[in-house]
Amino acid sequence: MSEEPEPLKPLRAPLPENSRGYGWDDRYEEIVNIFPHEPLEKYLRNGFHPVTLGDRFYDGRYTVRHKLGFGGNATVWLARDSRENQWVALKIKQAKAFSVDIEQDPEIKAMKLLEHKYTTHGSTKSRCFSRLLNYFQHVGPNGTHTCLVTELLGPSIEQMIRVFDAMIPWDDPDYQEVETFRPDTILRSSRQLLEAVETLRLWGIVHGGMESHASFVFRSKPSY
């Protein structure tokens, strides 16, 4: 007779009796482990655009090869740019965020402003934002979607912390060697984040969401 598998235990402590409660997904700190995708019910009119690996965009220039992630308003894909022969990140927004004049899209306006400030101020510091390479509109079954093409970045700080965390055998009481970021790496990363905030302030821009999941590492160009 085979043993039944142990049920997944909640990672958070039960709520106090006077609490109003929460949903089943709120019982887990790492919600991405049990809900690793965007809400599928948003694949409807004015919602997300259905994407399949191998799909082509912008007259065949960008070919989707892998999924990078998602947010509340868009999905992000690894794509190959056949014209420039390079890897890029393709962000496809929900159709409800569509602007008749794509130049008025808030995110595009912000990224173009950042690029303008960076080039005109002759900054000697490293770039603190991703480069907007292209943007266009794509018509799909759920509506017209604004698409942004940016340079491909490395993992987020949150993802890197997760990798180190997963390497630690928490169930081994004798484990001593803890793999984590080196102190100089932490200090260098912290300094770069502060410099980025200061640069934006000098340009008259306020960043409202400096979080680990939204802070990415710039990567070297791959050799393939």
From TrEMBL:
Catalytic activity: L-threonyl-[protein] + ATP = O-phospho-L-threonyl-[protein] + ADP + H(+); L-seryl-[protein] + ATP = O-phospho-L-seryl-[protein] + ADP + H(+)
Top-rank taxon, per record: Eukaryota
Record-linked PROSITE patterns: PROTEIN_KINASE_ATP, PROTEIN_KINASE_DOM
Name this polypeptide is given: non-specific serine/threonine protein kinase
Binding-site residues, ATP: 91
Single annotated GO MF: protein serine/threonine kinase activity
InterPro entries cross-referenced by the UniProt entry: Kinase-like_dom_sf, Prot_kinase_dom, Protein_kinase_ATP_BS, SRPK
SUPFAM superfamilies: Protein kinase-like (PK-like)
Enzyme Commission code: 2.7.11.1
PANTHER family: PROTEIN KINASE DOMAIN-CONTAINING PROTEIN-RELATED (PTHR47634)
Keywords: ATP-binding, Kinase, Nucleotide-binding, Serine/threonine-protein kinase, Transferase
Secretion signal, residue range per the UniProt entry: none
Enzyme class label: transferase
Domain called Protein kinase: residue spans: 62-224
GO biological process: regulation of mRNA processing; spliceosomal complex assembly
UniProt organism field: Clonostachys chloroleuca
